Give the backbone structure.
Amino acid sequence: MTTDTTTEAPRFLDVGTGEALRRIAYRRLDGHTPSVLWLGGYRSDMRGSKAEALAELCAQRGLGFCRFDYSGHGESGGRFEDGTISRWTEEAMAVARTVTNGPLVIAGSSMGAWIALRLIADLRAAGSGARVRGLLLLAPAPDFTERLIEPRLTDEHRAALERDGLVSQPSDYGGTDIFTRELIEDGRRNRVMEGVIETGCSIHIIQGMMDADVPYSHALDLVSHLPADGVILTLIRDGDHRLSRPQDLDRMKRAIIDLMEGAG
């Protein structure tokens, strides 16, 4: 019997100390393992359509599910401008260690895919890598600061980064995208697409070929860094970056089910 806590008020986990202390909001669904851990994307929150669809799927199947908001996102504390890949990975590790138990299948969307790969590397370094039994990457954007953002910066953007420490521009999804100098510099220290990325688990990547933010060539490049065994790449000819249409959500659910069944 599962207890559905995903629609209730969030619970909170303190991460960091001193001036770096921030309250991380999370929601958890108790159930069978492997549990699913959701890692959202840049400027997204845990109430997005993909996270909601996975929460519903896990509730129906009696599976554990956990999602949270990075600092500066959604219902969590902290300033967005203070966010870095290192900082958000630290929060993902705190949630994985404190809130979840047992085996995991990790689902990461866009920037969340980068966080997922960094999280797995940290878990493996700590001797806990065997907890991760499967990995679903949706429109994955590892190393996006260096590979996707920096090449698009104009001279004006670079001057603003040097002068103000950040650059902002209107987002196609509403609001404003903010990229700080620290995010970009920290991104260089957290690159994963440098050699073979060892995960120790099966991987399924779903990528839209009409993605204007993360070109599908980036997913093909990522595959070249992953071990030859156990990697499935699904290209959706008319899929965009959000992958939130009903048919995209169904595809995501089938991929999670396959990974869960393969996890044993």
Q: What stands out?
A: The two ends are 20 Å apart (CA to CA).
